[in-house]
Hints:
Number of helices: 9
Distance between the termini: 26 Å
Number of domains: 2
Radius of gyration: 19 Å
Amino acid sequence: MEVERFADYCPNGLQVEGARPIRRLVSGVTASLALIDAAAEAGADALLVHHGWFWKGEDACLVGLRGERVRRLMASGMSLFAYHLPLDAHPELGNNARLGRVLGLAVAGTGGERDLVWHARLDRPTAAAALGRRIARRLGRRPLAVGALDRPIERVAWCTGAAQDYLEDAIALGADAFISGEISERTTHVAREAGVVYFAAGHHATERYGVQALGEAIAGACGIEHRYIDVPNPV
Length: 235
């Protein structure tokens, strides 16, 4: 994961050390209480996530909901591993790499901040509505599309999760459309004024694939079991 390359918003790697050797690994997107409980019920020795704990700017006190998550994890004896930006950026196992595969996009290159914006050229010019249907079919979730919806799309850029503010990086790379997870009020105006299309395809929906790929790679390398558990999230 080359975590030393990234000035991240949270610690990457082992966040909580469990009580036993790891023979069964469960992966998921976010270390929520629902995922912790599901992993414990599945008999996991460790939990691997994209969104872990101890984010910059958070209250460091382990009270309330945060304290309950920690208590439940430690009572189960599981370890917690989390990889945030390193997992977004990984060239083979990362969220961007895997989303490109799911959407059938042949990567032409990367750019933007930390090279986190990936881009590809479509086989032929495609209407925004048709690309939206493709995204919905592959992700099982209809994206919100804003901007110049009547323009043909030839070059597509993407970055998973909450990367709406990388839209201008995508435009600088020559993209006609940008796919990410979330959308802000300002995103609509930027897309309209730049004459491009922005697809908000869901933070959770776009970031389900990297952690699964990493979990499978770890299981294969270490000779352990792996299972991905999805906790649905409409955002």
